[in-house]
Amino acid sequence: MESGVNDLKSLRITSSDDDEVLVEEIEVEEGEDEDDEEEEEGVTLGFVEKPKKTLLSASPSVSKQSGGVPAWLDPVDLPREQARICGFCGEPLEFLLQVYAPISEKESTFHRTLFVFMCPSMSCLLRDQHEQWRRDENPRRSLKVFRCQLPRSNPFYSSEPPRRDGTDKPLSIGAALCSWCGTWKGDKICSSCRRTRYCSEKHQGMHWRSGHKNDCRQIITSSEASASTPGNNRGKLPAIGKATCSTLWPEYEIVIEDELAFDTEMCEDNSCATALVSKHDKIDETFQLLSDKFEADDNKKSWASFEERIAKAPEQVLRYCRDLKAKPLWPLSVGRPSEAHLPKCNYCKGPLCYEFQIMPQLLYYFGVGNDPDSLDWATIVVYTCVASCEASVSYKEEFAWVQLYPTAAIP
Ligand SMILES: [Zn+2]
Ligand SMILES: [Zn+2]
Ligand SMILES: [Zn+2]
Ligand SMILES: [Zn+2]
């Protein structure tokens, strides 16, 4: 085994339903049960709250944010066209959440934000699920994570430590964004008015049909009118950073709390647990299916310890712990990656480490339904470059692993 593997012991290799038998054997000595017992590393939990004031989207240093539009840390060098679309259906991805996670030991990571995007189509996620087991050079994904980081001295923000109250905003104007999704860079421009910008033809078409057809003519007329009165022609530029589409996931602020704080005070208000139960109904069905096809016992055990841990704070949507010893909390034993499934960093070729995981509770807050085509996952685990390396692109693609409920994964 290569060096660096020891550092990554925490990335526990667990039995999977795949045929990675060799890797499993190596890890058996480590003790399979440790997963359930080790709780020493401090996990930070994230809970959603309706944003208190002004649009969060203007401030990338707000600790965590979900839904709405992203607050790009580097507002200029945004992800390129190929990076921002679903690898299966080709549609622009939707913003799921961002986590502000600076690493204080390094100068280059004074600001550091991780952005998660996803295709809202469950059929794409099912295909993504199959793709993630392969270790292609350029795997197709319907789920993407970008890491952006900036040193203390940078062109966009004051060198004062961020106040993180929603008032830290880029000092300079960022790239013009898509007039429809407000999310991605607007590389394409409306050929009639030459004012509104789009990330994709798809979004241009949607904006056109939802009213730009009329607005476009008005923009042309008003710019023709203002051309004859110089000095008055700059007021009509389309709003930047505002989405016109109504299909974005709702915007929340993610507030964080130490998991240890929940060790004694159990959830007193039972309503919070029952409200989330619906997403878990599937689990019985899941085990029935598993007893035919997989080792149901392992999964039951895994699920029981998962549930026990989650029960301390059932509304959590995020679990964060960037520590080389930290491990994700897997709901099921089936469908976990072995170390061999984790790619190397795309940029420095160094190892990746677990950084955070996204819980399906987020879908509940996003109002995603329970029908078979609705988006659903057991957990999404995000792995990032251990070195949090520099690269020529501002938004570096990191790796996410999706664990689905087998009911969804088995056709
Ligand atoms: Zn898709
Ligand atoms: Zn767009
Ligand atoms: Zn136009
Ligand atoms: Zn790297």
Features:
binds zinc ion; 411 residues; 12 strands; 2 domains; alpha+beta
- Beta percentage is 15-25%
List segments where confidence is low: pLDDT < 50 over at least 5 consecutive residues: 1-39, 231-241, 269-279
Order of strands in the sheet with most strands? 1-8-2-3-4-5-12-11-10-9
Radius of gyration over all CA atoms, rounded: 22 Å
Mean pLDDT: 78
Order of helices and strands: HHEEEEHEEEHEHHHHEEHEEH
> Number of helical segments?
10
| Shape type | globular
Helix content: 10-25%
* Sheet of most strands: 10 strands, antiparallel, barrel
Explain how this protein is built:
It is a single chain. With 411 residues, the protein is of the alpha+beta class. The protein folds into 2 domains: 6-174 and 244-409, no CATH class; 175-239, no CATH class. The protein has 10 helices and 12 strands. It has helices spanning 21-28, 34-37, 122-131, 201-228, 271-275, 277-280, 282-293, 296-311, 361-365, 406-409; strands at residues 44-49, 64-66, 94-100, 111-118, 143-150, 188-189, 197-198, 252-258, 318-320, 352-358, 379-385, 396-403. The strands form 2 sheets. It has a 10-stranded antiparallel barrel with strand order 1-8-2-3-4-5-12-11-10-9. A two-stranded antiparallel ribbon has the order 6-7. Strand 6 and strand 7 form a beta hairpin. Helix 7 (282-293) runs antiparallel to helix 8 (296-311). Residues 1-39, 231-241 and 269-279 have low confidence and may be disordered. Bound molecules: zinc ion (4 copies). One zinc ion (ZN) binds at residues 86, 88-89, 91, 119, 121, 124, 142.
Summarize this, please?
It contains 10 helices and 12 strands. With 411 residues, the protein is α+β, with helices and mostly antiparallel strands.
